Amino acid sequence: MSIPFACDLTAIPPGERAAHHEATRQLVAAATIIRESGEGFAFELAADEYETVTRFVAKERLCCPFLTFVVTARANQPQVELRITGPAGAKEFIRAELHLPPG
Fold first, then answer.
1. How far apart are the first and last CA of the chain?
2. Which terminus in the chain has less CB density within 10 A, N or C?
């Protein structure tokens, strides 16, 4: 079964959208490293940003079901990693959605 490459902007309730936009802004601002890969991006953040990452993923996966989110948090490590990937064309979508500079 194929998942369409389209966002469902109604998946996040109107009263929660502002908080989601703020979590998105915080995620990008807090990233200490942003790595581009063939399928998307990896963000490294301080471990204390874990809640920001999980808040972002919890909402973003509702409106963008074609994206894959992988959060890696290891014990005794000072960072958490978020990888966002998707089908062909998703990388440019991610770049635009998160307001990342051109590669």
1. 31
2. N
Joined tokens for residue 20: 């989601």
Question: What is the Cα–Cα distance from 70 to 49, expressed in whole angstroms?
Answer: 15
**Displacement of CA 28 from its chain's centroid (Å):** 9
Residue type, 38: G
* Closest CA relative to residue 20, chosen from 5, 7, 33: 7
Per-residue pLDDT, averaged over 71-87, amounts to: 95
The full set of domain ranges for the chain reads 32-97
pTM: 0.90
Q: What string of DSSP letters covers the chain?
A: -PPPS---TTSS-HHHHHHHHHHHHHHHHH-SEEEE-SSEEEEEEEGGGHHHHHHHHHHHHHH-TT-EEEEEE-TT-SEEEEEEE-STTHHHHHHHHTTPPP-
